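Exam revision sheet. Question 4 asks you to relate a sequence to its structure. Input first:
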Amino acid sequence: MDTSNILLALLLSLLAGLTTSIGCLIVYAIKQPLPNFLSLTLGFSCGIMLYISFLELLPQGISIAGENLALLSFFLGIALIAIIDFAIPAYKNPHEFREASDMRKGKEPILLRTSILLAIGISIHNFPEGLATLFATLSNVQLGIGIAFAVALHNIPEGISVSVPIYYATKSRKKSLFYSSLSGLTEPIGALIGLGILLPIITEQLLACTFAFVAGIMVYISLDELLPLAHKYGKEHTTITGIVLGMLIISLSIVIF
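Answer key, structure tokens:
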């Protein structure tokens, strides 16, 4: 593990987290998200995450830590993110995206309270992604860039899901931008905590287990959140096109660089 890339890892996690702000800016620009654009983007992110998880992170974990430990770590990663996901009621879940027109119909106090819960939910979901970006970058810069890119892409619709209800509840663009940006900052915070607590004690075997653990988190996010949303907001062919393009581009980037 090359610790000389610490600053790059922190920068990547920060940039990936701040892309939630792009979702907010999209709301300002087009007023209502374009379903096919969301579907293609979510599918693209899903393809990158699945490719990295099954063909990069999990194999690395198995080769170093052994199949038993790596698979245990993989399913523990799935269990952790599932517990976090189930702890958030479906109607408050940050990945239960609502159309802008639906947001206008809600009562403002209820809408604002739900909006804040959305931001909190997204913050919780984003925390382990900061860990993933940190340790992947320290092990392999290209792999870290790939994970950060995938995370950044799916943070855009998350930013939309936070900013739309806050905007219609408060009529304030500044508040919607503030909360959507704040929800993304838990990613670099996750990276900083990983840097301060885990990095000093990490060994090669523990790092391998961490890779498998992160792979489990990313697979769950891809299959439980990104893929269903991609199908919801676009046609099936749009989704699969995004998935294949994501896998193709990340594989080419790994081979070339």
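Marking note for examiners. The chain is about 85% helix and 0% strand.
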